[in-house]
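hiii, so i know i said id send this last week but things got crazy w the move. better late than never?? heres the sequnce for the chain we talked about at the cafe, plus the structure i predicted for it. fair warning i was half asleep when i ran it
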Amino acid sequence: MIQFCTPLRLNTAAVFGFTMLAVAAPVPQHIDVQQVSTSVRDVVVPRPDEVFGALNKLGGVNWKEYVRTDRQSNFQERPRVALLLGSVIADGFIAVQAEDTPAVKEIGQRVQSLAASINVKSSITQHAKAIIEAADKKRWNNVRRELDLTQNSVQRAMDELQDQKLSQLVSLGGWLRGTEILTAVVSKNFKPEGAELLHQPDLLHHFETQLQEMPEFKSQTPLIEQIQGALVEVKPLIATPKSISPDAVRKINEITTRLDAAIVTKQ
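okay and structure toks below
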């Protein structure tokens, strides 16, 4: 696996997003992950717009089923806030895909509150305002773009504050929520082509490596240790040389659902 000599900045487009392709296109017989992927500092990950567009073409998805806006827990630990921020931004993409205006607006406000907790609110205020305004006008492509810019701005601000580790946790929180939804969708209407979109071993290895370099966060937030252990469970399911099985997809969903619940729930 790849080791990284510089911090990897994973924007929302790299780890999670839901820009649909035209669902009228013919259903593909096979999805070539290399054709729907992008390289992020030596880590190849599927492009989310292609991934979830492909899922729609494989059977259609009721995205409203996956909308979630309940984020009432407040945390003091900055690592927990960073993980939660990534999860909430991911939820924003689900709400956009479902074209749920109230949910998008609520999520936009929540993002501002969480960003304030880790001292980067000023970097995303304009994006949050634009998200709410675009949702009111149902300009969903604009909302998607602003969500992506929000994550980029948050991570750039963290880098400027020398908080690269928190930046990684934002990405990790988004990836966990995105993987939870991806596995839920694939499990409901299993097709090998959909399951293959989970094949992201290099990205998983990157997150494992980053968590190993966060001993101070592990003592402050035990959840970090739990996530690290869970990624060890996920690794053989995602990195298998064989096709990812329905049982493996369900197991990954169980693990990521458990972790995301722990991220958003006050313990």
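btw The mean pLDDT is 78. thought thatd interest u
miss u guys!!
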